[in-house]
Amino acid sequence: LTLDDNAGSPVDTVQVDSKYPTELGITVKVETGTTSGKKLTFRCATLGIEEVFDNFTLDDIADVNLQSELVTLTDLESATVAPNNLPKNIAATALTGGDDDFVGITATDYVNSLTAFDDTNLGGGQVAIPGQTASSVLVALKSHAEAYQRLAIMDAAFGNDVSEMLAVDTTTYRSNAAALYYPWLKGPKLDGTSGDKWFPPSIAALGACAHVDRNEGTQKAPANIAVPFAYDVERNTDGSTMLTDTARGSLAAKQINVIAPITNEGLKIYDAQLLFPVGETRLRFIHERRVVNLVYHS
Questions:
Q1: How many whole angstroms separate alpha carbon 85 and alpha carbon 58?
Q2: Does pTM top 0.85 for this prediction?
Q3: Burial call 40-77: b when 16+ CB within 10 Å, e when fewer
Q4: How far is CA 39 from CA 75, 95, 138, 171, in A?
Q5: Which of 123, 188, 213, 221 has its CA at a distance of 20 to 30 angstroms from the CA of residue 16?
């Protein structure tokens, strides 16, 4: 969002960008400052964050950029003489446009990003690259988890039906340090606009791990846990469920953890199996792996 200055013929003076790529809906409000300058309010209703910078002048841009969790400001160096080079007052206005460059990110980039966590001082826990299902990414997640005593949580590819999932060759990324989840989840768009959005199942699995850590302990399997934000999962083209009892049993036999609707209970995570290789007899369930990881790092 580009803010105009207070000149008679307004020109651009400050640019406001989301600090991180997001669809969460960030608004900008500009008012007259309490004692001088301007009062800037940045708000993200979805995250419940509101930031207020009162008595703002262009000299404060660096401080705002350092303190804000939501935005980055850029001085567009308006030719208007101070103090009329300050932003013009506006009602709460959403950030629009921009380019997060996701299209330019390759599987190799995601794989290389894991090196940021190549530090045992970061401890155990889970590692995931939500929504990324290329074989090279899943193999890298597995290798990272094994090397640093962590749990890799993997996503099934979007659009796979049960027969396609059962046909997937998981050999190269099977491990007693990895878990695979299926299918993708349907929920509301996070920017507040109408319509649905598809989310990778790994985010529900990560949340379930955090839930049991906080409420019961790492020894508890992150299963039979409701998914709070989603209201459906992928279905057959005719709208019928893919996840019959028979289908769930077949997927479980292949160590694929299913998220499915339960009557009167909403969506729940079934099972908590590791994607263990053939012959594995020691660690076969997620809570077992997570307890071992906890002991190791402790």
A1: 8
A2: no
A3: bebbbeeeeeebebeebebebbeebeeebebbebeeee
A4: 16, 18, 47, 57
A5: 188
